[in-house]
Amino acid sequence: MSKLTPDEKEAVLRKVYEKGSKNEQDVYLHGFMDCRQVARRRPDGEDRKKNKEVTFSYYIRNNNLERQPVCKTAFLSLHSISNSRLQRLNKLLVTQMSPRDLRGTHNNRPHILKPEIITKIQQHIESFPYKISHYSSKEVHYLDSALNVKIMYNLFGKLHPNLKNIVKYEFYLKFFKENFALKFGRPQVDVCTQCEKLGTKLKDQNLNDNAKRVAAAELMIHKRRANKFYSKLKEITALCHERNDVGGIVFDYIQNMPLPVIPVQEMFYLRQLWLYGFEVHDLKKDTGHFYTYHEGQAAKGPNEVCTFISDYVQRFRSFTYSQNRNNTVVRYLLALAASKRFSKIHQYFPVRGHSFLPCDRDFGSLKRVIRKYDRIYVPEDYENMILSCRKLKPFTTTTICYTDIIQYKNWWPNHYKKTYQSSDERKAKFAISNYRQFIYDSSTPGYVIASDYIGGVVTRNFKLIKRKAAPILPTAPAYSKMLPINVKKIEHLKKVIQYMTGEILEFFYHITSLETTNMEAED
After folding, report:
1. Burial, 234: exposed, middle or buried (Cβ in 10 Å; 0-12, 13-18, 19+)?
2. Which residue among 56, 374, 423, 517 is least crowded, i.e. fewest CB within 10 A of its CB?
3. Rounded to the nearest 10 degrees, how much is the dihedral formed by the CA atoms of 430, 436, 442, 444?
4. Going by DSSP bridges, is the β-strand pair 141-143/182-184 parallel, antiparallel, or unpaired?
5. DSSP 8-state secondary structure symbol assigned to residue 39
6. Integer Cα distance of 409 and 328 in angstroms
7. Domain boundary assignment for the chain
8. CA geometry: angle 369, 373, 376, nearest 5 deg
9. pLDDT reading at 322 higher than 70
10. 3-state secondary structure of 337
């Protein structure tokens, strides 16, 4: 193999400097540096700095490949290095040590923890159970409300005591924020009574192991039955998207909305007018339609629910699935199936305490908008918020008057029985609270097929109709005038009229002129 010429050797060394590692670069730079003892010393004086022990020379190669001395500033500029790096090379040159890159080799820096320690931190955070929010437009994961990152870090220290001094809290917090989109939930509300009762048994230290095993088995079965509702909900939603002849709706009331909302301290002690909001969520279209009215227009009862369902069915022509445990609604659905409007109607009821529906997510979107307003005076203010709270598939609204509500509650006893004994061996009586699933078939008008659980194998057939002829749906109004409002509430509303003007003032003058009663409106 032929020897390299000086030019070729210089080219190789230059390539190493440009593309090599830091150690290779430092070795290259050392080749153009010299260190020697100081030849001449000056006498020390009080005002003179300490004399140098050594001096350094710097070189580059000229066109003839000869070493040519340059100043320190030129050497730094030509090689694009910092003064601190040159100072380090000078110290190594004095001690005659080869350059060695020590970056990232220290054990006292938290960001260079070993991969196995990082894995333990990740596994520890993932070990905490989380819940999924049902009241928001997007899926949010929540850790227990009693937790925070500091508590989690302390638990990590107890689990891995040998790592407590290695993994600092600051690093644990940074790792949690950068790698996990988890929030800490609020205290639970509307907890399932069965889950709470069985959970208490499992925590009872005085309960024997056999009883705890029984409670654990009951809790597992209870949760499986509750999850069947959500599985069925997903199944029906997929079926709605696949077939044109199938539709589905879910409906529910939103929490009562107060009027007026004014940021004055006096409002904390005054009663307010309730505005009711009933939503029908279409599973096929993923849209929601709200029916809004205040407590002077109508109540929150079966007449209102059936009226809104009937209006939605006629308006949007999509209906196979519902959720409302009410005798009047059951008879309305029987009549709807008997009229051949639909070939078959399925009705499902979730387990109490596990009834998180698409309506709840819609309500969550609306409540986030409502919280941004500190002044709300009339129902139109809430209706505008409903129309604007979702941009992709905006909600629609219908303002209800007392003349719109149809009398269903007094209609059905003339056509249907309140109870009926089944024809099977158990001779069960029809009680709406005992079943989770109803089927209404147009081929067997007046009959309802009931099941104890969603998807249950055992079913019972109840004949609820009194006559063979299919009943005609009612058209008579439920109210002949506006409903009276609690007298104390009217007195309190009169106190806040001083904060209103224009059309707002006219609305509350009208409300305070209505008939009064000592009965409280439904919360």
Report:
1. exposed
2. 374
3. -40
4. parallel
5. S
6. 6
7. 6-94, 110-184, 242-517
8. 110
9. no
10. helix
Q: Give the amino acid at 512.
A: T
Give dist(CA 288, CA 163) in Å, integer.
52
Instruction: Please give the C-alpha separations between residue 426 and each of 118, 266, 463, in angstroms, as whole numbers.
Output: 61, 60, 16
Question: Which is nearest to 521 in space by CA: 274, 326, 239?
Answer: 274
Distance CA 332, CA 473 (A): 8
Q: Given this model, what pLDDT does residue 267 score?
A: 83
Cβ atoms of 349 and 437 closer than 8 Å: yes
Report the interhelical angle of 72-79 vs 83-94 (nearest 10°): 110
Strand 273-282 relative to strand 257-259, pairing: antiparallel
Query: Which phi and psi (to 5°) does residue 44 adopt?
Result: -70, 145
Quote the Cα angle for 411-414-416, to 5°. 95
* pLDDT computed for residue 420 by the predictor: 74
Euclidean distance between CA atoms 181 and 179, whole angstroms: 7
C-alpha of 159 from chain center = 30
Cis-peptide, bond into residue 260, ω within 30° of zero: yes
Average pLDDT value for residue range 378-392 = 93
Q: What is the DSSP letter of 162?
A: G
**Helix H segments across 243-370?**
302-316, 327-338, 358-370
